[in-house]
Design a protein that fits this description.
With 330 residues, the chain is of the alpha/beta class. 48% of the residues lie in helices and 13% in strands. The protein has 17 helices and nine strands. The strands form two sheets. The chain has a seven-stranded parallel β-sheet, sandwiched between helices. β2 and β3 form a beta hairpin. The longest helix is centred in the middle third of the chain and has 24 residues. It starts with a helix and ends with a helix.
């Protein structure tokens, strides 16, 4: 399918349909833990099937596990029964380690498992697109260098950071191509760590590498959706939109109506109901009100697709998820 045309058709429709970043709550329906889900391609495919079957989502999205790519590079991962994994320690602390860092094969870590999950899901989900989740280059570099320490390196050893970013980008292009070959219709490229950078730093350490990934992978029938949930987004919109992604997904740290007001009419924007505060911590009444408020402020824009502000937590309430979709009917 032509993914660009499909996304624009949805945005321009009088009846809005949503594309939330929704995958982990399927563990509740399957009766498994998050840790079990992360270790099985079959369970991940079933999770995507469950979301596609039980909600009116525009597309099924694979698990947004942002530890997979760092693990492939050799980072240590801490698993918890019902939480997303965390990266432990610091794989790269300076120039010598950056130079020695090897670009992993696609057989490393759990990456093959995730690719297989997308392949299985694409075989089984025939009425909706299947989107793969993938981390962005600066966010991956942050997990390899430590999310705090990389900020110091950006100032003190920028070439070290660029060395890591170069290797991260080469791997992500290959990983994205594997998802494409497996049948994915597109990728949600999550670059959350860039959301705490200044516009100038994002222009140096994130955007050129994101653009390389988009240019290498995106076609009319394979969409790259750029995600940034930082509160600095409004100050870097020009640079973000120059990336050339099929769509841009923003978090609930920004006022989406203000973002849309500063967005060209030919640029597609998605967002941004609070995933923690509403999907997980809210009530049916509160998420209904939040969703209707979002539609009231943004629904008239014909380049807007409703979504969650970020990945919806595994413990989100299913009654809230269903209420979000129900609130879109108007």
């Amino acid at each position: 399918m032509n993914m660009r045309e499909m996304l624009w058709a949805v945005a321009r429709s009088e009846q809005k349909r949503a594309l939330p970043i929704l995958s982990f709550p399927a563990a509740q329906k399957l009766g498994v833990s998050v840790e079990e889900l992360l270790q099985s391609s079959e369970l991940q495919a079933r999770a995507m099937e469950t979301i596609a079957r039980e909600t009116d989502t525009l597309a099924a999205v694979s698990l947004m596990d942002l530890s997979v790519e760092a693990e492939a590079f050799g980072a240590q991962v801490r698993f918890a029964e019902n939480e997303v994994p965390a990266i432990l320690g610091q794989l790269v602390s300076g120039e010598e380690e950056a130079e020695a860092l090897a670009v992993p094969e696609l057989t490393a870590g759990r990456a093959p498992l995730c690719v297989e999950a997308v392949r299985l899901a694409k075989q089984r989900i025939t009425d909706k697109p299947v989107l793969a989740g993938m981390i962005g280059p600066y966010s991956l570099a942050g997990r390899l260098c430590d999310v705090t320490e990389i900020m110091y390196l950006c100032f003190d050893e920028p070439e070290t950071v660029h060395t890591v970013l170069e290797k991260a980008t080469r791997y992500l292009i290959r990983y994205g191509q594997a998802m494409k070959t497996a049948g994915a219709d597109g990728i949600i490229l999550a670059e959350p760590l860039a959301g705490i950078l200044s516009p100038a730093m994002a222009e140096e350490f994130s955007m050129p590498y994101v653009k390389r990934i988009i240019d290498a992978l995106q076609t009319d029938d394979f969409a790259l959706i750029y995600h940034n949930c930082g509160n600095t987004v409004p100050r870097m919109l020009e640079g973000i939109y120059a990336l050339g992604a099929a769509a841009y997904h923003f978090g609930n740290a920004v006022e989406l109506a203000s973002v849309l007001a500063d967005t060209p009419a030919d640029v597609l924007v998605m967002g941004n109901v609070d995933p923690a505060g509403e999907f997980a911590g809210g009530t049916v009444a509160s998420i209904t009100a939040a969703t209707r408020s979002l539609l009231e402020s943004c629904g008239s824009y014909r380049n807007f697709v409703p979504s969650s502000g970020c990945d919806i937590p595994a413990h989100a309430k299913w009654e809230n998820i269903q209420a979000f979709f129900a609130a879109l009917d108007r």
